[in-house]
Write a structure and sequence with these properties.
The structure is a homodimer. Chain A has helices spanning 19-52, 57-64, 68-80, 96-118, 123-133, 139-155, and strands at 84-85, 93-94. Chain A has a single domain, classed as Arc Repressor Mutant, subunit A, CATH 1.10.10. In chain A, a hairpin with a 7-residue loop joins strand 1 and strand 2 (93-94). In chain A, 68% of the residues lie in helices and 3% in strands. The complex binds manganese (II) ion (4 copies). One manganese (II) ion binds next to loops of chain B. The structure holds a DNA duplex. Chains A, B: Its main location: cytoplasm.
Chain lengths: 156, 156
DNA sequence: GACAAAAGTTAGACATGGCTAACTTATCTA
DNA sequence: TAGATAAGTTAGCCATGTCTAACTTTTGTC
């Protein structure tokens, strides 16, 4: 029976983890940030193609809130990564790999947003927070969100 | 009565937002990433001081999974930002501002972890995902998490 | 079809946050 | 207390993702 000195009802307890486990956690976050640019771009490109017929750098820049040269540079990185196909001065297309990644990202994005909405959060906040959160949600957590969402839909 | 062609039970609908709103969302994510290093460091420093008596670069490096020179560089940034006080080759202390930030971050971190745990997620996954998610949780969402947690604790 | 406007690219700069190699300082131990 | 070991720093490199300024290409209009 360790943990004797009980101190008046502390609702949370800081779990202390092994240093390596903690380090791995931070490494996971850094990795997530490395994939983030690609994920947001292909997701957006897929949506632009669907809703506007094509994906143009100007529009990508406008939606992401960055300047056109940033888009040019990043698109060429995506091309090098085999996610998009494109010739200079023309619209941007997704490769099969790009389309696959985009679909996975869109699905994940929607689940995160819907989950936040189910908590009573307003649409604007849900979208904003989801835009960052989505990249840090593991498969396990995504499934938990889906599960909670299902419960919510049955219940209310 | 718009939206005529109903297609077999689509559980999610992609909300299309104004370009500026979307851009603001991405800008928010970028800002969150700018504060992330400082937040993770002060949080960890506070915990090391509490549990080990002092915060040493080696230990910070080990826990973050980075090399010592990275810590040196980042600590000097934190010092420039007024979050940390320290002399070369000595342990690291938090300023009042640093302590305040650390407390807010620790609280937020705990809430996110507890919330994920309440969804049935295992501890290791909860901690890992929370490490990234915490930086993208607005006040609104944090409150919603707390609320859900309260419900959960009452219920089960 | 010429030319103006819009879209896109290139070049070059900058901040951030990682790294290694080599050096300095502090701590431990025989 | 000397010498070895551990801890910490410095210098310099790199990738990422942002920007501005200037140039090129495409598009739209008269
Ligand atoms: Mn995103
Ligand atoms: Mn997204
Ligand atoms: Mn974190
Ligand atoms: Mn993030």
């Amino acid at each position: 029976m360790t943990k004797l000195q009980s101190h008046g009802r502390e609702p949370f307890e800081t779990v202390d983890r092994a240093p390596e486990a903690q380090a791995e956690g931070f490494a996971t976050v850094r990795q997530a940030h490395e994939s983030e640019m690609a994920e947001d771009y292909v997701e957006l490109i897929a949506e632009l193609i669907e809703t506007r017929g094509e994906a143009r750098p100007v529009e990508i820049a406008e939606r992401l809130g960055v300047k056109p040269p940033t888009v040019t540079k990043n698109i060429s990185r995506l091309k090098a990564a085999g996610l998009v196909r494109r010739e200079p001065y023309r619209a941007i297309f997704l490769t099969d790999a790009g389309r696959e990644l985009a679909e996975a990202c869109r699905r994940r994005h929607r689940i995160v947003v819907e989950f936040l909405l189910s908590l009573g959060i307003d649409e604007e906040t849900a979208e904003r927070d989801a835009e960052g959160i989505e990249h840090h949600v593991s498969t396990t957590t995504l499934e938990a969100f889906e599960q909670a969402l299902k419960q919510f839909r049955n219940h209310e």
